[in-house]
Amino acid sequence: MSPILVRPVREQLEHDRVIRQLQAKYKRKYDVAINHSNEQTAPVGAPQSPWYPDLVLYSTDRNRKLLGVVEVETAESVNNLEAMSQWVAFGKLKVEFHLYVPVSGVDSARRLCTDLQIPTTEIWAYSSLGDQIRFTAVQRSASAAPEPRPRPVVEPKPVRAAREPQPARAAKAPTPAARPKTAARRAAPTPVSKARPAKGRAAAPRRGAAKAPARKTASASRAQKRK
């Protein structure tokens, strides 16, 4: 029997509500039995000195094998006496041991499990927000099985209607290319333009032509007349 015989009414109501939500949570994977309030219907351990954890997890087959135990604590029950009395016994069952404590008792629960060498599979913290209770994983051992993640739903892609084959377009007749003409123009020789002499300037004498005799001056002509 737990050293915490009587809990405050408010904590007891919260304790029972957490148990109900965990029962729905673990039903997805286990066959779950609960020891709710004063109802003790699912014992574990030796028949001479049985223990009654808050939730007992069994396999879903016909053998109904014991797979784990779950203990839910409140702010008043996270203490050394509770840990030595129940947590040590649940850790020795060689099955999964899940411990749920309020957010304010996480550090104390860790310290007690370390000091008393209590093997826990998982330690969870819970907090109430109105009518809802949220759970947060605080510690998990290496042997704890990971929770299955929901697979994303992939919507099928709409099938597109096949397009009708379009008639092939008729090939256009090649237009007469202008490139041969331009090539012919480039190949034709360009006429050589004759150089015209510039206006107002005398044409330069050609090489080899005889020079015209120089005109006699007026003084020479007068001297001949006197003779």
Main attributes of the structure:
6 strands, Trna Endonuclease, Chain: A, domain 1, 5 helices, alpha/beta, 26% helix, 6-stranded mixed beta sheet, 227 residues
Task: Please characterize this protein's 3D structure.
The chain has a domain at 9-140: Trna Endonuclease, Chain: A, domain 1 (3-Layer(aba) Sandwich). It has helices at residues 9-26, 80-91, 106-115, 179-187, 218-226, and strands at residues 31-34, 55-58, 66-72, 96-102, 122-129, 132-140. With 227 residues, it is of the alpha/beta class. It is elongated. Helix content is 26%, strand content 17%.
The radius of gyration is 57 Å
Distance between the termini: 180 Å
Mean pLDDT: 78
Biggest sheet strand line-up: 1-2-3-4-5-6
Low-confidence stretches: none
Short account of what is shown:
By secondary structure, the chain is α/β, with parallel strands linked by helices. The chain contains five helices and six strands; from the N terminus they run H-E-E-E-H-E-H-E-E-H-H.
